[in-house]
């Protein structure tokens, strides 16, 4: 079952901060992916992605 979650202003702020932080580490993450990552962290659920740029980050589960 899929449950859609609304984003909050804090998710966009947190996502933008995460993108800035990771770009300094040489990662090339999109802002919207970082917003999704922030929402997953707020909801305490794994962030599912196929983007290897997220390797080494907490709460990430890789899918193909």
Topology (SSEs and partners):
Blueprint: H1 9-23, H2 31-42, E1 47-49, E2 60-62
Parallel strand pairs: 1-2
Q: How would you describe this protein?
A:
- By secondary structure, the protein is mainly alpha-helical.
- The protein has one domain.
- It has two helices and two strands.
- A two-stranded parallel sheet has the order 1-2.
- Helix 1 crosses helix 2.
- The chain is globular, with a radius of gyration of 11 Å.
Helical proportion? Answer: 40-55%
Mean of residue pLDDT values: 95
Q: How many independent structural domains?
A: 1
Strand content: 5-15%
In N-to-C order, the SSE pattern is HHEE
* Order of neighbouring strands in the sheet with most strands: 1-2
Strand pairing plus helix content: what structural class?
mainly alpha
The coarse overall form would be globular
The largest sheet is:
2 strands, parallel
């Amino acid at each position: 079952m899929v449950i859609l979650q609304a984003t909050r202003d804090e998710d966009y702020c947190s996502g933008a901060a995460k993108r800035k932080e990771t770009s300094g580490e040489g990662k090339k993450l999109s802002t919207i992916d970082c917003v999704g990552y922030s929402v997953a962290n707020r909801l305490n659920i794994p962030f599912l992605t196929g983007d290897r740029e997220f390797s080494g980050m907490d709460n990430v589960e890789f899918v193909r």
